[in-house]
Amino acid sequence: MYILLTGLSYRTAPVEVREKLALCTHDLKEAYTCLKNEEGIEGVVILSTCNRMEIYATTRDLDKARERVYAFLAAYSGIKREELKPYLYDLSCYDAIYHLFKVASGLDSMVLGETQILGQVKEAYMRAKEEGATEGVINTLFQKALYVGKRVRTETMIDQHPVSVSYAAVELARSILGTLNGRTVMLIGAGEMSELAAYYLLQNGASSVIVSNRSYENALKLAAKFNGQAVRFDEIENYLLVVDIVISCTAAQHYVMRRDNCYKALQNRGGKKIIMIDIAVPRDIDPELGEIEGVFIYDIDDLKDVIDGSYLARQKAAKQAQKIIDEEMKIFNDWLSCLYVVPVIKALRSWGEEIKQKEITRAFNRLGNLSEREKKIIISMANSIVNQLLHFPIVNLKEMALCHNEGHLYAEVVKKLFSLHIDEGEGIYDDFEVGN
């Protein structure tokens, strides 16, 4: 069984591309239905966040599975495969595992060590299980990744400083305006990222928070937490005349702030500066609104340039985290490598046993009447020959599995050399512990 990862992130693709691959709840269900029924894909987990869209799959045929995933991504995004491919990274086996462990630990995030990604990995895994899209290897992989992410945070304290995409958005606003003291802020969306943004804004001097959301009840709940004001979604335009900062993060699949519902209010500000930070993917704010005098729009990619005040501390913690990941990679890779070779070793032994029994029977038939002592000598000799012939191939195969990152390749070579039949239904997941 091989592990395959195909995806893109803020490192490889701009928001204009990422938003075309963002999956809402309904899309996820359809995506799992499509992918789990594809020939060549045994199990699959889709990790879709603001900053990344990654598909993890287990397969017995890497080329076939990779082809199916590429076809799905092209079809869903509406981007031609040759145009999409430059934005994608394509990892397998050891590299795919290593990447997931880094993601879960927050080492691949836009904001180093961010806290939200571990919950997003868990949510993605649980959703895949609910959809019946996982199997033994991918279950163990994601359980291990969650364990690694928790261990990194517990032992390195990398997430102790309040840094997240929401925090970075607030820092961006402060760097542009100089100070947030006395500023009025409007949050579009009432989810976790909006709540974090409200917390950081008030910590940094904002005087009032206005919250708007499709669900007015949710807007009321969030506003109440910060003694703010909730407004209905269709009233946003009225408040654009008085706010200094807008931070938008909804799950909408289209612009929620557009020319037809915001242009007039923004134009009537008379050039007074307003900062609009769009941290949603797909984007919430139509970039064309930035053409209005005094309107400055920033999207999630602009947060790359925000200076993280705890960057050096997190860099130190990241080095500790790297050591933890390396340790856990060794444990998991040993398990996975053995997973590849155990069925091959069992099949090799069965192959030797079958030949031995066939030749013993043949010898007995040719030799006629033999005493029990003579039969035991022949059987002992046959056992010895087979055991000696298989000893070094088995010992070396185990060693290759544990000492190299490509143990699966050696297993495949032995399979082909001896034309072995592997029972794919063997219960091999219980033979080894991953070490959680």
Please provide a written account of the structure.
The chain has three domains: 160 residues, Beta Polymerase, domain 2; 141 residues, Rossmann fold (3-Layer(aba) Sandwich), CATH 3.40.50.720; 89 residues, no CATH class. Helix 6 runs antiparallel to helix 7, helix 8 packs across helix 9 and helix 14 runs antiparallel to helix 15. It has 436 residues and is of the alpha/beta class. The strands form two sheets. It has a six-stranded parallel beta sheet with strand order 7-6-5-8-9-10, with helices on one face. A four-stranded antiparallel beta sheet has the order 2-3-1-4, sandwiched between helices. The C terminus is likely disordered. The radius of gyration is 29 Å and the shape is elongated. This is Glutamyl-tRNA reductase. It catalyses: (S)-4-amino-5-oxopentanoate + tRNA(Glu) + NADP(+) = L-glutamyl-tRNA(Glu) + NADPH + H(+). Belongs to the glutamyl-tRNA reductase family. Homodimer. Catalyzes the NADPH-dependent reduction of glutamyl-tRNA(Glu) to glutamate 1-semialdehyde (GSA).
Say which CATH homologous superfamily of the largest domain is assigned: Glutamyl-tRNA reductase, N-terminal domain
Largest sheet: 6 strands, parallel
- Strand residues, percent: 5-15%
The number of distinct structural domains comes to: 3
Tally of DSSP helical segments: 15
Short description:
With 436 residues, the protein is α/β, with parallel strands linked by helices.
Tag the structure with descriptive keywords.
6-stranded parallel sheet; alpha/beta; Rossmann fold; 4-stranded antiparallel sheet; oxidoreductase; 436 residues; 3 domains; Glutamyl-tRNA reductase; porphyrin biosynthesis; EC 1.2.1.70
